[in-house]
Amino acid sequence: MTDQKDLPPTLPSLDGIDLRRVAGGITSEPEYLDYDIKGRGWWDRTVSSTGWGYLIGTGVGGIYGVKTGMSSVPNSRFKVKVNALLNHSGRYGSRVGNAVGCVALLYSLFEGASEKLDVEKYTYSIIGHSPLVTPMIGSIMSGIVYKSTAGPRVAALSGTIGMGTVGGYYAVCQVMGWKFANTNFMFL
Questions:
Q1: How many CB atoms neighbour CB 63 within 10 A?
Q2: Which GO cellular component terms are attached (predicted)?
Q3: Helix, strand or coil, per DSSP, at residue 63
Q4: CA–CA separation, 103 and 154 (whole Å)
Q5: DSSP state of 179
Q6: What's the rounded Cα separation, in Å, for the pair 60 and 65?
Q7: DSSP assignment of 116-177
Q8: Which helix (H) or strand (E) holds 184?
Q9: What is the spatial distance between Cα 165 and Cα 138, in angstroms, rounded to a whole number?
Q10: Fewer CB atoms near the end CB (10 Å): N or C, the chain?
Q11: Is 178 exposed, middle or buried (0-12, 13-18, 19+ CB in 10 A)?
Q12: What is the pTM of this model?
């Protein structure tokens, strides 16, 4: 005689389950996803800008590191050249990538905060409707915070450079007839 332990376990019968009730009612209509008319949210833009900033900065810094590595090779042997290239590209690539990624993170956070606080409604009576308000606040504040440890003069200069960059890009967009939108990488 077989023991109960030797038999495989039996599953209960699932015939009495109505899948329409479990799923909350299956309809023939399609289910639509949420759509934001303004585009991506501020957190999506923050993550995207930080990632793209790090990637672009690492690439540009790595290319500069290859250039400096080629010019500073003390020996003509292949292994020494490769070592110099890898050392210099890693050094400059990581420095520039981290710097641009941090600035992109700060810019996106300050821009998102000024959008959430709806700063444009406070500046509307002074300058009217301007697409520059939130990008300018983001660029000034990110420059000031990024260089705040270097002193107030350097921080103010850094914020001014950020503001000038956004203003210059806006001027180029106006001259070329492009749409100025702050929905992609940083303010571009």
A1: 13
A2: TIM23 mitochondrial import inner membrane translocase complex
A3: helix
A4: 15
A5: -
A6: 9
A7: HTTTHHHHHHHH-S-TTHHHHHHHHHHHHHHTGGG-HHHHHHHHHHHHHHHHHHHHHHHHHT
A8: none
A9: 12
A10: N
A11: exposed
A12: 0.73
Instruction: Report d(CA 167, CA 113) in Å as an integer.
Output: 20
Q: Whole-angstrom Cα distance, residue 164 to residue 169?
A: 8
Sequence ranges of the domains in the chain: 40-117, 127-178
Q: Which of 66, 119, 111, 131 is nearest to 93 (CA)?
A: 66
pLDDT at 125: 72
Among residues 52, 39, 84, which one has the least CA distance to residue 66? 84
Q: Residue 118 region, left (φ>0) first, then alpha (ψ -120 to 50), else beta?
A: left
d(CA 57, CA 65): 12
Closest CA to 134 of 40, 42, 53, 35: 42
Q: What is the mean pLDDT of each run of 10 residues along the chain (188 residues)?
A: 72 79 69 70 85 94 93 85 92 95 92 87 78 88 95 96 91 86 56
What spatial distance separates the first Cα and last Cα of the chain, rounded to whole Å?
Answer: 79
Please give the full DSSP string across 65-108, using - where no structure is assigned. HHHHHHHT-SS--HHHHHHHHHHHHHHHHHHHHHHHHHHHHHHH
